[in-house]
Fold this protein.
Amino acid sequence: MSATAGRGTTPASPAAGGVSGPGSIRARLVLLVLAVVTPFLLLTAFDAWNRLSEKHDAVQTRALEIARLIAARVDDHITTLEALLKATRGLVASDTTPGRPATAALGIIRAGLPSEFEDLVLRRPAAGRETLPALTSGRVSPAAGLSVSEPARSPVSGRHTVTLSLPVLDARERIVGRLSATLMLDRLRQLLETEDLPAGSVVTLVDRNGIVVARSLDFEHWVGRDLSRYAYIRRAIETGEGVQEAVFADGVRRLSGHSHVPSVPWVAFVGIPSHAAFADERAALRQGLLLGVATLALALVLAGLLAGVLARPLRALTADAVALSAGDLSRRTPMASPDELGQLAAAFNHMAAALERRTSELQERERLYRELFETNPLPMWVFDLETTRFLSVNDAAVRRYGWSREEFLAMKLADIRPPEDVPRLEAAVAASYGERSIAGVWRHLHRDGGIVDVEITSNAMTFAGRPARLVLAVDVTERLRNEAAMRRFTQELERRVGDRTADLQAANRELETFSYSVSHDLRAPLRAIGGFARILREDRGAVLDVEGLRLLDVIGTNAARMSQLIDDLLAFARAARQEVHATTVDVDDLAREVFRELRAEEPERDVQLLLGALPAVRADRAMVRQVLVNLLDNALKFTRGRSPALVEVGARDEGARVVYYVRDNGVGFDMRHVDRLFGAFQRLHASHEFEGTGVGLALVQRVVRRHGGEVWAEGKEDEGATFFFTLPRYQDPAGGD
């Protein structure tokens, strides 16, 4: 049987002449160089970008500082001129002689004016330029002050000027005229000059309407031009102070800062050309990138040379590997050197020797497998997974099924199946692709037409290069017959157990009914016994001696105990029959309510309740109340004699359930007797020490178990006891807790 287990594909043989392409050594070395050098190039570019960004912010900050300086210069200059006009206004306003011209005063003042003033004029509404008639205008507004005109060319000198004017007031603070001075803007151009700016930088003054008042470059061309249509001008007028980057009106992109002049509605602009601001940084960036590219090119050349050195011995080793993969298992490489390639050649020779040895072992193992296949006493065969034809069968299959080996090899799997099982067979074969091992029970046909039940186990394998499965068949006809008999016996046994269970349930119901009826029927005679004992003590107590009175007390006490026992038995019976009505129970509120009721029976005792967080549960509220009543009543009973008596009620959350506990500092119990605690009528203390019927804890256990919970106890003599019980945790329908 020439076959190999599992599926596989024969890898394509590499070309002996060398390897090229994305997976070649040359390509990988190039990628390695790129992986090493590229981060340095990126870091260089990133560092240059950071420097450019920092320089950008620094240039704008510098432009803003210079704009503030220019605005302060202009403001000082305008403030000085305003002070001069105010002084002149005082002299002119004091000369109020009707009809007297102010020529003398104005002439003196004009003679002393700085050269930047072209003219000084006093205008009165009624008399023209320099007369002082009485004016009847109203009082001047407190806001009236210096006003500035838009730039204009002087008709006298032809130079660019602006007019500064102040109102002239009389003694009643009424406007009687306006004093105006014509200022030549050449002086303002001098205030705009600074030596701290790169070439191409420009300083500009514009008024609130966007009209150029002065400019450091090309003064004559720009003064008086309206720049209000430019967005950077409008933003500066609106914001008052700030920085921006924009293309100026002359088409040059600049980083700018602007600041308002406080004394007049002008804005000072300082614009620094972007190309001049970043010239040094851009040159450094270009130099760094050129150096990086040169380094990368050199590294790539070295990588190519190194790849050639490495590729030659690797091509020889590849040729040996190709020969080995073609079947020449004796092929060895003669390469011997102390470097990694020599180690690789040694590893190749070791691998070739191991492969030759393994191949020999595999051939021997295949011979043994064929021998085991042929001599196996159980039927075995191999079938083609695609065609389902038999590829090989052993002698046991020939003997067991009756067909000769030649007949088997001409058949398919469907030929040894009953016709009605063929669809199931086809589905199973289709599903077996990719499954390593499959087992199942099938029906097979003998050549004589008989049917046997067989359990087959099939494993994936490759047979003559095709996907196939090796099958082992075991006759299980007798075993299945025995299993069928066992199933019939089991069904009969289950029926009998069901009958016995039903009988037991009926007997339990009858016993519960009987106990319930007996408990009720015992109440009347007990009430009579207790009542007659009480009447006898009240009516005949005087004639009875001490022993007689004691016996009457014993009768009354035992009747009361018997009545309590009947009540406990009735509660115990109801707990078994009562239907559980599960609702959301607020255990915290219920524990407080029960404790208040029990505490009211002994108000004189010193009892402290420690109440922890008690989560809500899904349970029958009345039953949970009964559990808390019994456990808290026990805690109060067995802590008599303790001062203070400590009773703790707490809980811990354990996922789907909540564990509650009631702990006290009472007399406790011996853990050797813990198994007796929850049995009916089981007591660990004498009745004269602590009252009780021995049913309370049994009732607690029954209620908790009906809710699917557990109950247990821990204690130590004279050190208290703790009783635990579990209930299902409340789940919020909305998905929360």
